[in-house]
Amino acid sequence: MSLKKINTVLAAAFILFVLWFGTEYILSPETTAPSFGLPSWPSGDGGGFLIIKGVRDVVLALVLAVLLVTGHRRALGWALLVEALAAYGDMANVLAHDGSMAMAFGVHCLTATLMVANGLLLIRETRTPTAAPTTPAPQSA
Question: pLDDT class for 141, splitting at 50, 70, 90?
Answer without folding.
Answer: low
